[in-house]
Amino acid sequence: MTLRPATASDLDAIMALERASFPRDAWSEASMRAELESPHGWYVVDIEAGVLVGYAGLRAVRGAADADIQTIAICSAFRGRGRGRAILEALLVEASARGASEVFLEVRADNPVAQALYASEGFVEIARRPRYYQPDDVDAIIMRLGLRAWASAREPSPDEAGACT
């Protein structure tokens, strides 16, 4: 597993995975290109043996208090191996580096695996958008994470810090 910032040269592979992951509501190539080129966006790709097997995007204006996770996709053959969590953590670290104190996202109400991942990192549901995902009429669950609490939870406790002494 190798994570690195996405570049314009990744667009074709990102779009192939986008269409495979979200066949009924994939982003357009123009929208994805604009995201990759935006100074307010930060996209990361997961590469395995030279092949793009995952990607994710963050919208975070430098110095703004909040950031938004735009998308996360992992090739189905590589799911369940911690890649989604690693990509999510990379997005959260970048949001923090850009000065955000809160991160928001929307997740499909019919995606309990993603919901569980986000909840395990400390995201909490704050609202719902009825019938947000079209054409499927699936609600969006809006979730929020406080980055200070998330970072504090990741720091080793004093007992763990001295465990090797």
Q: Could you characterize the architecture of this molecule?
A:
With 165 residues, this protein is of the alpha+beta class. The protein has a single domain, classed as 3-Layer(aba) Sandwich (Aminopeptidase), CATH 3.40.630.30. Helix content is 34%, strand content 34%. The protein has six helices and seven strands. The protein has a seven-stranded mixed β-sheet, sandwiched between helices. The chain is globular and about 45 Å long. The two termini are 31 Å apart.
In short:
By secondary structure, this protein is α+β, with helices and mostly antiparallel strands.
State the domain count.
Answer: 1
Q: Report the strand count.
A: 7
Q: Could you name the CATH topology?
A: Aminopeptidase
CATH homology-level superfamily: Gcn5-related N-acetyltransferase (GNAT)
Rg over C-alpha atoms, rounded to the nearest angstrom: 16 Å
Count of individual helical segments: 6
Percentage beta strand: 25-35%
Helicity, as a percent range: 25-40%
Largest sheet: 7 strands, mixed
So, CATH architecture?
3-Layer(aba) Sandwich
Top-tier CATH class? Alpha Beta
Spatial strand arrangement across the major sheet = 1-2-3-4-5-7-6
Q: Give helix and strand order, one letter per element, not per position.
A: EHHEEEHEHEEHH
- Give the CA-based shape: globular
Provide keyphrases for this structure.
single chain, 165 residues, Aminopeptidase, seven-stranded mixed β-sheet, 6 helices
Summarize the topology:
Elements: E1 2-5, H1 11-21, H2 29-37, E2 41-48, E3 51-59, E4 66-74, H3 83-97, E5 102-108, H4 112-120, E6 124-133, E7 138-146, H5 147-154, H6 158-161
Parallel strand pairs: 4-5
Antiparallel strand pairs: 1-2, 2-3, 3-4, 5-7, 6-7
